[in-house]
Amino acid sequence: MVGRNAVLEALEVEIPIRAAYVAEGAERDDRLRDILKRAATRGAALLEVTRSELDRLTGGALHQGVALQLPAFDYAHPDDLLAAARDSDREPLLVALDSITDPRNLGAIVRSAAAFGAHGVLIPQRRAAGMTAAAWKTSAGAAAHLPIARATNLNRTLRAYADAGLTLIGLDGKADTSIDQVPGASGPLVLIVGSEGSGLSRLVREACDVIASVPISARVESLNAGVAAGIALYEISRQRVGGLD
């Protein structure tokens, strides 16, 4: 992660970091002083390197004299998501992403999932965004508090969740059933969000118990995947007995 604004925002939302790098002779403006203070408070390794070395470490990115090294994300196992959801005092609610490739959409959905009481997020291991620096930043720190798992075979994992008693609800902007009309939304379920372009894949769609849409004005063709997921999660949380924690 590079750049003064991005690095400062990352430290403010407590994204896990391995080390902070500052170029020798970097201009000490208010942002950099705040970055140094926050990094020191968190006990992060703070390394001063030459500008050429920082160029090499960041692949020539526009780093403005500062960069963060993030640790590899610690993904949960899909079985752990189900176990945690079933052990909760609330009805299980999981969110699955079907080939979401934009890390900012992933981060936004993680943030909404945490905000509206989901127990975890499931993503495919291949051909999908992972928890990169951009996803971490967009999640505004929610990824530190919500388990995120990767499935080697998303369809197989979803069917296993269905066998465990969870209803699979797929989001599709063209579905006739509105998310606020879905039966069983207050029970154990998985909300499945399709990719930004093609939506739900065929096998995942076939596994769903219900396909639902977020109703929008005819003047708008579709919603961003992150926005649609947030609205759907709000509606599900509204229907649930007890609401949010």
In whole angstroms, the N-to-C terminal distance is 33 Å
Q: List the domain count as a whole number.
A: 2
The CATH topology of the largest domain: Alpha/beta knot
CATH architecture of the largest domain: 3-Layer(aba) Sandwich
Largest sheet: 7 strands, parallel
Uncertain ranges: none
- According to CATH, what is the class of the largest domain? Alpha Beta
What series of H and E elements makes up the topology?
HEHEHEHEHEHEHEEEHEH
Helix-strand makeup class: alpha/beta
Q: Characterize the overall form.
A: elongated
Layout of SSEs?
Elements: H1 4-12, E1 19-23, H2 30-41, E2 45-49, H3 51-57, E3 66-69, H4 78-87, E4 93-97, H5 103-115, E5 120-124, H6 133-139, E6 148-151, H7 154-163, E7 167-171, E8 177-178, E9 189-193, H8 202-207, E10 210-213, H9 225-239
Keywords for this entry:
245 residues; single chain; 9 helices; elongated; 60s Ribosomal Protein L30, Chain: A; three-stranded mixed β-sheet; Alpha/beta knot; alpha/beta
